[in-house]
Write a structure and sequence with these properties.
The chain is about 40% helix and about 10% strand. The chain is an alpha/beta fold. It has a domain of about 375 residues: TIM Barrel (Alpha-Beta Barrel), CATH 3.20.20.210. An 8-stranded parallel sheet has the order 1-12-11-10-9-8-6-2. Strands 17-18-19-20-21 form a 5-stranded parallel sheet. It has a two-stranded antiparallel ribbon with strand order 3-4. Strand 20, helix 25 and strand 21 form a beta-alpha-beta unit. Helix 26 packs across helix 27.
Length: about 800
Amino acid sequence: MSQNITTHNLGFPRIGGDRELKKAQEAYWRGEIDQAQLEQTGRELRKAHWQLQADAGLDLIPTGDFAWYDQVLTLSATLGNIPARHRKTAAAAKGHSHHDDLACCPQRDYPVREFATTACTDIDLDTLFRVARGRAPTGNATTASDMTKWFDTNYHYLVPEFHLGQTFQLSWTQIIDETAEAIALGYKVKPVILGPLSYLYLGKEKGTEFDRFDLLEKLLPAYQQLLTALAATGASWVQIDEPILVLDLPAKWQRAFESVYNRLQHPKLKLLLATYFGALGDNLSTAVNLPVAGLHIDAVRAPEQLISVIDRLPAHKIVSVGVVDGRNIWRNDLEKSLAVLKQAQERLGDRLWIAPSCSLLHSPVNLEREEKLPQDIKSWFAFAKQKVQEVVTLKTLLTRPFDAIAQEALAASNAAAQARLSSSKIHNPEVQTRLKAIKPEQAQRQSVFAERIVKQQALLQLPAFPTTTIGSFPQTDYIRQTRSEFKQGKINAVEYDNRIRQEIADCIAKQEQLDIDVLVHGEAERNDMVEYFGEQLNGYAFTQFGWVQSYGSRCVKPPIIFGDVSRPTPMTVSWARYAQSLSKKPVKGMLTGPITMLFWSFVRDDQPRATTALQIALALRDEVVDLETAGIQVIQIDEPAIREGLPLREKDRKDYLAWAVNAFRIAASGVQDETQIHTHMCYSEFNDIIQAIADLDADVITIETSRSDGELLQAFEQFHYPNDIGPGVYDIHSPNIPEVNTMVNLLKRAAREIPAERLWVNPDCGLKTRRWPETEAALARMVAAAKVLRSEANRSNVLDLEQELA
């Protein structure tokens, strides 16, 4: 029996168990700490995470998984692919950090200077923040780069921008430096980088029309420089991620892999090609025959591919089996995993590696800290630290099956699996009975949109180009303190309610002063748009420290759906009723939709997701009806995750879209025609599901368009969207204050394809992360833009009337 099975990890959460990285980033952006202090936080986190993985017994520990904002952005900087608008100004370029170029770093003890160009680059840490946020402590403010979802996860990456004729060169040495840092500390490491084909594929062309695929020849030399520099640090293995191999690839992209990896071979490095999030499918032959030393596959999302890969793989290559779920929190069933791995071990021997299915970026850090979870439910979970331990335990069970500690872990795993299977907390007969009683007409509004909108306009009396916001307003320190004091028992429910009511009253007053047409209550009572609702639904569990990174410094704490979902009592009605009592203008009721509640939670894996979505939809339907009964005339049901849930393969999409659309319509269709249903979507590629978005039959949809240069509007230039739409006119993730003319021009572009009477004016997302001064300034300009359009429309109507009379 082989004793040489290798264990490794594809990536570890970078944020820290207490979100240390987030706190340091935001303190740096506010000017409260300097760059040296920020970098020290990064060093401490990296060292702690490396040590944790080493203590668990991993054979190879990843480097290159740490990022100051996003790992794709880090690679863009590494390759010198930074848009000109984000680079340092001439004044700022007079001085440069020790990262500015390789030739300027004689203190390094590894020979990389030979790969440098003669001139220092103008990329530094603040450059990365300008790309991500449009602003940094140094340099000019500008437009941030586009941000979108990483495959079908809730993680957002910074989309690389490509221009005709551009070149690439090794320009930012973070990955190299951190690999050298880990090796100097005595760790056996495996640097992780995104492969050249996936990097190109996930980017976008800008400016002159061309095909970014044509840049491949210019990109590869920079990758060769990077690999040579990594070899010079002493690394022997490099993990190159090519997740696009689980997609339906155009033929030329598929064909390119062989020539690309022939050129990336390095005499001092072994390459592990990593795929995840799905099956290789028709890319299997391509992947197994590449000139690399090993192949990683996702055996959680696609367990059926393991034997096919082993059958086709050349005899000298290793197979890394991702058998521990990197994307969910369920404890590994060691017995089942062991059966899979034994089958692989018989065929592969020492060529078997064991790993999580993907990077643990998508997992919380450490379950041990969770003290408030019921012990029986807690025993069903594993976070990043525990998942690393599971990987090592599986190796031990394969190579030393009588090891006492490993056998104890196996027994605990079996007990947890059995307890979960038989738990009375999982199934609710009332919920299951209600599911069986659903009728098709429950997914239909009473009348078609053309009839509904007439009734809604008669009731709401909104002006042309009505203004609104997406729902949340700044979460001040006082609001967070109030919630914290209430949870800790320092203030009672009456005091808590009084404080939140005052925040709502202030928010309504500020919106009225700004002359916004459809108001929101600001969501001061909500910690998170999913967690808040999950806390009030049966079938959910919650963590104290289960944070995961969504983008940059934005972290979320996803609730855990462990059982059947139902709503015991109304969740938002009292706050909405109070907010509406403060204004004669309509105030939106604000809900999170069933698909977003599903995909932004850690979801139970013991029943189809379609079933869980339908349970959530029924709970939300009750809330929507109660809001209408309470006098709320406009109700927004946010669904930013509907594109995120789209299967990666075309063959699987029709079924998903059918049940996702049905769930939304079940939630939204219990109201009268006069009640206006809104939905909101942001930061995803929606063009390929535009028909499904129309099928939701929301009266108004608000979408992100500003950050992506209005690219989403292209979908509406080819598809005649039937209902009202609000293209987001400014980027709320940037602290920059938008210009009135910019917003007017974006709306005029939209009006070329969407009738002006169906256009709304709104930001592209919620305002929770912003501060009040910039929020009020931005919204004042947004309202001004709407009034410019109204004025121009009125003048145009007068001219038309005069021409008719003449």
